[in-house]
Amino acid sequence: MAGPTRFEVYSEKYKDLFFMTRHDGILEVRMHTRGGPLQFDWTAQAAYGNVWSDVGRDPENEVMILTGTGDLWQIGNPEVWTTKFMDWPNRRKLEFYHESLRMIENMIHCLDIPTIGAINGTGSHWQLGTLCDITICAEGTAFFDAHYLGGVPPGDGIVLALQQILGTKKATYYAYTGMNMNAQTALDLGLVSEVLPREQLLPRAWELAEMIMQAPRSTRQLTHSIVSHPWKKALAKDQGLQLTHQLVDMAIDEEGIYERLMKIKERFQRNGR
């Protein structure tokens, strides 16, 4: 008989990308590659949608903390673009579209529990941390979107997050300029709610999770439903359109984006510099 997914099964299944620990209903998901910062590739992208589904179907998970390893959130890898998107097989292009959507949509639609993003440093795909109900970050973290600088329309969810949190004009400015937003600016603009020394980040995330756990389960889950509803509306309204615009441009880009991304590679690897 089919039943809920089990922690022992999916924590082992995803162990090469996500270290998972659980204590008294609080699940910590820590992204990694061989014990260091997660090095993003297409395997990781596909795994995201699946891990949110498995975590969400386990009733023993009552609060989730998402964080990275070391001093980086995750590392963007320009080498995944050595083959131009226009030269990808059509079936793989379609898979990429769905994987890109599930990466963030499943986080919102499959997790019916409070979530805390503990952004431990600079890195790509930081929108995952801001999709959480509460987002805190380490001092020295820089937030930026390098899509436009790399010659790609920004459709993977970062600009959607900026639009939802900062508003249209500020989001547009950061999309076009690719300018760094330091941790203090992110706090001032409301992208994060707390900035802490890195060594205090996870203890504070657990403190917040334990505070959330003090309320009844129904209160926790229904509060999460209320606070995540604007994300559900934004994803349904805009994310498919934004991603499609990005992929259309990539599909007609004869030059390819690898060389352009290599010029700004360091931005993904060391504190935005």
Automatic annotation (TrEMBL):
Belongs to the enoyl-CoA hydratase/isomerase family. It comes from Paenibacillus apis. InterPro entries: ClpP/crotonase-like_dom_sf, Enoyl-CoA_hydra/iso. It comes from the Bacteria. This is Enoyl-CoA hydratase. Pfam families: ECH_1. One of its GO terms (molecular function) is catalytic activity.
